[in-house]
User: Fold this.
Amino acid sequence: MFTINIDSSSSVPMYEQIYEYIKNEIKSGQLPPKAKLPSTRSLAIHMQVSRNTIDMAYAQLLSEGYIESIPKSGYYVSMVSELTHIAVKKTTVIPVKSKKEPAYQYDFSPYAIDINSFPYNIWRKLSNTFMNNNNNDIFLLGNNQGDEGLRAAIGRYLHESRGVNCTTEQIIIGAGADYLLQLLTQILQYSSTNININNNSVTDENVHSNKECVNIFSGNIAMENPTYMQAYKIFKTMHYEVTPIPLDSSGISMDHLSKIDSNIVYVTPSHQYPLGIVMPIKRRLELLQWANSSPDRYIIEDDHDSEFRYKGKPIPSLQGIDSSSKVIYLGTFSRAIAPAIRIGYMVLPEKLLEIYKKNFNFYSSTVSRVDQNIMKSFIEGGYFERHLNKTRKIYKNKHDLLIQNLKIFGDAIRIEGENAGLYLIIRFNTQLTEKEIIDLAAKGSIKLYGLNEHYFPDTESENPTLSPLPPTILLGYANVPEEDIKKGIEKLYCILRAKLGNTK
Amino acid sequence: MFTINIDSSSSVPMYEQIYEYIKNEIKSGQLPPKAKLPSTRSLAIHMQVSRNTIDMAYAQLLSEGYIESIPKSGYYVSMVSELTHIAVKKTTVIPVKSKKEPAYQYDFSPYAIDINSFPYNIWRKLSNTFMNNNNNDIFLLGNNQGDEGLRAAIGRYLHESRGVNCTTEQIIIGAGADYLLQLLTQILQYSSTNININNNSVTDENVHSNKECVNIFSGNIAMENPTYMQAYKIFKTMHYEVTPIPLDSSGISMDHLSKIDSNIVYVTPSHQYPLGIVMPIKRRLELLQWANSSPDRYIIEDDHDSEFRYKGKPIPSLQGIDSSSKVIYLGTFSRAIAPAIRIGYMVLPEKLLEIYKKNFNFYSSTVSRVDQNIMKSFIEGGYFERHLNKTRKIYKNKHDLLIQNLKIFGDAIRIEGENAGLYLIIRFNTQLTEKEIIDLAAKGSIKLYGLNEHYFPDTESENPTLSPLPPTILLGYANVPEEDIKKGIEKLYCILRAKLGNTK
Assistant:
C-alpha cells in the first residue's frame, strides 16, 4: 500500500495531493503498467481519509488516462509504453526584461501624438455608462463587421468631415490599419483569382513530397515611393509583389503607374506619407480614370492623418469623388485619439463588399464591444469633434513654435509639408548624410527620424524630383513639450552648425 | 464678377461657402479651364468681405488643385479635362436594419455564456484606475506582441491552472482566436516553405498577363472530425488543405493521422470540441511522438473551454508534457469572461517564435492597451480566479438542473460529455433526423443546435464510432435562466414525445 505524505496545512486539496503522488509513481515507473491499485475503500481506511477523497483522486487519474477501471476487478495502471520518457520541461515563467532604447532628452518623433490630451474624463464617463448590468448584451459576440451603431456613427463622421460617400453596410471595423490591410489583401486576392476557397484543389505537377503547391495569383500592388513601409511589409507578407512608383509634385506619377502590370495602387492623396504632398484634383481624376480602365483595378486610399490641417479645411477624400466604386477608403483613430485605441475602419466598394460578405465575414470582430460602444458615444455625443478642435489647436501652436525656432537655421534648411500632419519635412543643405545628421543629434541626446527609411530598399536615389536627394528629417512635434521645442532646436543647431552650408 | 449668395446665419464659415461656390462653378464648366479669376482684392471689395476670407477660399482651391496661381498674373482655373465628368454619388448614410433572427422563448445555445455574471464592478473599477492622467504611457502604441505585464500574468495563470510551461517571451496576445489563427497560419506557412518575404521573386513560367503566380507550399492541416468549424474555415481561407481525421474513444485516430501527408494537426485534447472527449495520457504521448518524428511537425492545442470542469480538477494541457517544443497552445478569455472582450493568447514553441520575431513581429498589436491593463490587473488582483469560481458554480448548478430535468426523456436519449464545458451532448433514439428535431423544436420556440454542422462537409457518416450517427443535439445551458431550463425541457419533451423510441 502507498505511503503518501499528506500536507494537511497545504492549500492544495487532499485529493489532489493523492492524485499527484500516484501520477508521479506511474510516470517514474514505480507503479508499472498493469499494476493493480488498492481499492478506494481500502486506501481510504489505510490513509484515514474519507472514501470520497480517494474516489476523486482516482476519478482524476481515470479522466487523464493514467489508470483504467476494469469492472468487478478494480483499478489498473494503463499500458502507456512511452510514459517513462516523459520529461516535463521545468521552465518557469520569468518576465524577460525588454531592451530599452536609451532615453533621449528631446524626441522629435513624427509618429507620436500628444498623449497629455487624451480625453480621460469623457472616456471614463462613457466607459462607466456601459459597465452596468443593463448592458449585458454588449458582452456577447457582436456583428463580425463591427456594431451597426458604431459603423453608422463613423459613416456620418466620414461623410461630413471627409466627404466620403458610403452606406453603413460598406464599413468594416477592425483592430487597427494593419489588421484591416491583412483582411483587405485576402479580399483582393480572392477578387483577382476567384479561388474557390472550399475547393482549392491542387493540380500543379510540381507537388513536393508532403507540401502542396497552391498557385495564388496574388498580383501586384503599386505604392508611392517613399511610402508607409508598414503597409509595404504587410503586402509583401501577404504574398504580393510590390512595385515602387516615383512621385512628382502632384503625387504618384501616372506615367510610371500606367506602364506597370499592377491592378492595385496604394495612395495617401490628402497628405502624402511621408512627403506631405496634396494630390490635386487633376491627378485624382487621372488616377480614377486609370482605375476605371479595367474591372479588376482598385485604389487603396489610406487617409492616415487628414484630421490635422492647419490652413483651410481638410482636403476632401478621393473616395468622395469616385463614382465608379473603385476606391477602398481606410482610416483609424490612432492619430486623432491615440494609437492604443485599436479601432480602424475600412470602406469597401460594393463588389469587394460582396466578396467580403460571402467569404470573409466569418472572421470574428477584432474590437471589444465595450470599446466600440465607447467610441460610438464619443462620436455621437460631439466629444470627438471637440477633441479634434482641441488637439488641432495644440498641434497648431507647437507647429508654429517649431517653424519660428527653425529660423535659426536660415537657408541651411528648407521646410516642406507645413500645412498639415504632425511633423515638418526638413531638407538640409549640408555635406552630411542623413545618417550622419541623425547620429550627431543622437550624441546630443536628440532623437531624429530620417526620410530614407520610407523608401523602398535601394531606390532612395531613383526619385526623379529628388536627385540628388538632400538629407531629410521628418521633424515631429506632437509629443514634444512646448518648452522643449525651443531648447531642442537650439541644441540641434549648435550640434550641426559647423557642418551646414548657407547658414546665417 | 461672381454673384455668390453668402448665408451669414450658416454655421459654414464664409470662406468655405465661397470655396464651395467657385468649386462647383469649375466642376459644372461655368468656369472653364484657363479662365481667369478675379483678384482677391477686387473680389473682397465686390463681396464686401475681408480680403483674408477670399485668400482662404482661394488657398483651399489651390490646395485641392482646382485653380493655379501664376506669379505676377493671377489665379486661373486648372486644365482639368476630365472635370466635367465628375458625377459625385449622392449616397447618404442610411443605417441598414440587420435582419433579426426570430426570437426564441428558449435558446439552448452551446456557444453562449452567462452574461449576467460579467464582473461589472471590478471591471469598472480597474478601468477607472487607468483612466487618469498619470497613465499617459498606455495610450501610446505598446509592444506588438502584447504588453509584457499582461503576458507575464497570463503565463503564470497558464502555468498554475493548465500546467503550461513557457516564458513570457513565448506568449503572443491577439484580438481573439480567429486573429491568432490567421497569424499562426502565416508563421507555419513560412516555417514550411522558408519563403524569403523580402525576395519572393517569381520564376514560374505560367505567369499570366498581369497576374503573378506565387508558389506557396501551404501544406496540409489535419483536424479532428467533428471539429471547431471556425478554425477549419480560417485554415481553408489561408490557403491550407485540411484533412478530416475521425475520432475514436480516445480522441483523434492515430492510425488515420499517421497515414496522411500532414505536418500540422489541430486538436482540442482537454475537452474535444464538440464531442467532449478527454484525450487520455496514452494518446497524448502517441500524438507527441508523431510530432517528434519530423522537424516540421506541430500540434495546435486549442484549449477552448478547459476552465469549466465540474468533476475533479482541470485536465492539464498537452503543452505541459511536451518536452520537444512541438505544441502551439491557444486560448482566449471568451468563455471564461465574455466573448466581447477580444483577448486571446498563443504560446509559440521556440522555433516558431523565432520566425514570428523575425518576420511577423512588425504587425501592430490588435488589443487596446487599456484593455490589456485591465485584464492584467484582473488576473493579478485575484479577481479572475474568483470570477471563475463563481461562474463554475453557476454553470454546475445549471448543468445539474439540466441533467435532472432531462430524466423525463428516459432511454430515449443518451447524455455524453457531462463533466465539462457549457453544454451536454444529447443522442436521440428516434427515427427523426437531426434537422427534423431542430425544426420541430423551432416551431415550439425552442432553439436547438445540432452536431452535424461540426462535421466536415459530406463526412457525417464516415466516423467509424458513430455509424449510423444518431441525431445529436449540443444542448447548451450557460445562458438559460434556471427557471427556463425546467420549462424549456418539458416543452421540448412534449413536442418530441410521440416521435421518440424507448420512452418511459
Residues 15 and 218 of chain A are 58 Å apart (CA to CA). The domain at 14-82 of chain A is CATH 1.10.10.10 (Arc Repressor Mutant, subunit A). Residues 87-91, 195-215, 463-467 of chain A have pLDDT under 50 and may be disordered. DSSP finds 14 helices and 16 strands in chain A.
